[in-house]
Fold this protein.
Amino acid sequence: MKSTLKREEKESCSCSRSTKPSHSEASVNLSLSLTFHSTSPNRERRQDWPPVKARLRDTLKGRRLVHRGDESSLFVKVYMEGAPIGRKLDLCAFSGYESLLENLSHMFDTSIICGNRDRKHHVLTYQDKDGDWMMVGDIPWE
Amino acid sequence: MYLRLPSKVLERILFFIDSNDDRNSVSLVCKSWFETERLTRKRVFVGNCYAVTPAAVVRRFPKMRSLTLKGKPHFADYNLVPDGWGGYAWPWIEALAAKNPLLEEIRLKRMVVTDECLEMIAASFKNFKSLVLTSCEGFSTDGIAAIASTCRSLRELELRECIVDDLGGDWLSYFPETSTSLVSLDFSCLDSEVKFSDLERLVSRCRNLKSLKLNRAVTLDGLESLLRRAPQLTELGTGSFSDELSPEALSKLSKAISACKQLKSLSGLWDVLPEYLPALYSVCPGLTSLNLSYATVRMTDLVDLLRRCKKLQKLWVMDLIEDKGLQAVATCCKELRELRVFPSEPDLEEPNVALTEQGLVFISEGCQKLESVLYFCVQFTNAALITIARNRPSIKRFRLCVIEPFAPDYKTQEPLDQGFKAIAMGCKDLQRLSVSGLLTDKAFEYIGKHAKNLGMLSIAFAGDSDLMLHHLLSGCKKLRKLEIRDCPFGDTALLENAWKLETMRSLWMSSCFVSFGACKLLSQKMPRLNVEVIDEMYPPETRPESSPVERIYIYRTLAGPRLDMPEFVWTIHKNPEIGVSHLAIK
């Protein structure tokens, strides 16, 4: 562990340490949780961190629940080989494979195809519920 | 023999002095200067409504025409102050109504304002011109209706990010047909639809209207009609920007927007559809301020818009702009003074968009006039901070929010101490700083020593020990406001540097290790401070002395103990038997 941080242990507080998996083995994420907090520090539901004003937070929340015409949204994360940052998008926002590919190509600044691997292009694949990697485009869009 | 400056001459000189800092200095010279100054001050600013009584302020400044007040601590914006804490406008309005009927302007921030307050304002001040409420709550649209209907010379009515009990859009219809004085109207925080024909007529007859900020309920068709009637606008907040428009309607809207040749500031743009952005292109070259915080639009569309805004000075945008977009902004917007980048997905744990520290580095390289930064980012590096400080020593306000608490420099795994050291040392005019990420006590040693002009500092999830607080309180000569949350210390540094707290406006600490015992000691030691223990598990005496309290809010005051404390706020005055040597009693 590269960083050493001292924490004073006080009677009525508990400190919990958790390691977050990351690229470097030496990284450690220490989280301090004080027992008298009435709300649990569950990150997903925190209203006080990060420090974003209520109005903006509410507007963003509303957005995530945006209902498209077919009343659903399906968010997936797409990773490109070699890039650490994945991009999130709503599959229901697209009308078909073509518009999906067009958008992805734009997002990742590369050309993407469904189909046989070609040295010049990236190929779009997905992992099905059995964990197998499948080529996108084999089954109908709907 | 000594010469005395006749007070008439001093009065004449003071006529030219607007700055309250300067006037405060003038007041300290001697008694007669104090007298002359107080009788000529028109605009009064009170940074903490509990620092002084309304009666004292009203008595001191009989010629006051404008009062600005701030109530709740800043962290109230992030839900850290429980409801009912305080910050009531009523005692101030009451005192003013009784003694200062010529009052023209009231500006309140983070205060509780009731309909009674608004009705009192409407009834008491015949010349009332300007009401600006920022982040206030406690009133309904009925109160606004009272202002609209009664204030004959109303020039400004601005509700900025207020929480209003919205009983409907009727309030707007209360502006009499004869009222033509409006210069600025901001109802962007209200939800209900106003009666559009009344809005149209209001806008048509107020020929001096310069600033109009609509709420989300106003449609694009409505916007087009309003703009046609008010092409003289300099500031516009649109309503929702996503209705379905036919090509003809879009073209009409475009035309109406382009007729606003003096437009400098644009905001609103809720849910703006990318295909509608070109309607704004015509006004881009003149824009100095653009608020895109509600526009979830992709980087390429943002860049197409921003590259036309060559005069832009203030930009608020979502992180959807990405590093690439900021690089474009750095190239095109050479006049940029202020940049705010907000997180589009604040609750996500991993980076979701391609916005990194590099984006801010680009801006620091390209925008020579950059002064003010607010940047939300998932992670950061020391190298970036050092580069930014080197590129832009002109930065006066630097707020970096690394979203992941305790996140180190992600390339070196070191704390961000060196980076913030560079900011503190390099940006000599730094007035406001928010730090985040992994920070040890060292970072605060640097800040304490080098940030000579720092007035306001915000800290979250940082530091190791009391040393951190000690460095800050014994350094930072000009520190006025310090707010700290989730840091593991408190007692020792607080008690050792108690004297410093009287030189500051306020100190806020929440989720730290400040014990009730220390709060009592501090209260006893420093009678001119209000040491508030804000703890929803009240009263604090039922717990052991050493147990930490949820929150403390300490501020200097001439007003003595608050008379409006709720149950969950404790000060030593609630337990006088504890023994306070000199209670400040007015």
User: Anything to note?
Assistant: Residues 1-44, 65-71 of chain A have pLDDT under 50 and may be disordered. Chain A touches chain B at residues 2-3, 5-8, 10-13, 24, 26-27, 29-32, 34, 36-38, 43-57, 59-60, 63-64, 85-88, 106 (CB under 8 Å).
